[in-house]
Design a protein that fits this description.
By secondary structure, the chain is of the alpha+beta class.
Length: about 210
Amino acid sequence: MKHLFKSLLILFIVNACSPVVPIENPFQHPETQDSRPSTPPKGPLRIFVLDVGQGDATLIIGPTRRSLLIDAGPPLSGAGSVLPFLEEREVSHLDWIVATHFDADHIGGIPEVLRGADGLAGTEDDYEPSESFLDRGEATEKDTPIFGDYLVSLPDGRQQAEPGLVLDLGGGATATVIVANGRYIDGREIHLNPDEENEACIGILI
């Protein structure tokens, strides 16, 4: 099955690659409490986990059609899997893109998504996010062609994800950054191994 559809009826944590450290109570963070709209949802919250082979790509569409793409798999998967799926689901733009960390099987397809179906930056079919592009920041010394292509493709307004940042998905749904670069929403930190990219991963609570 090329695309795996997951219907979400309960809270879901997108945190597959970050270190497993228990969070005492992330639901008590004040920003998550204040950011929930009082209006009822207009539709379901949908999460699509795309088959990109070795790697990850997750599309989240909120109740009011606000959209969040988390990673885009390895090189060629952006054009081969993510873009066709966006077209199939009639998703004409993305509100946010999040690169959880800088391993090739997570960021390799992102330049392809940003450039759109024609493969050219700055044209009408680009998927430059309307809100922001989030990753773990510039504190890295990776020196690979894939990471170089990723950096060159980044849109203006790149933002470093910080614990506590809340993305409003509409209809009462939110995406909250609970960990990034080893820093957790409850104030704790872990020592990062510079050779282990996964430890610096962004974790998001939906």
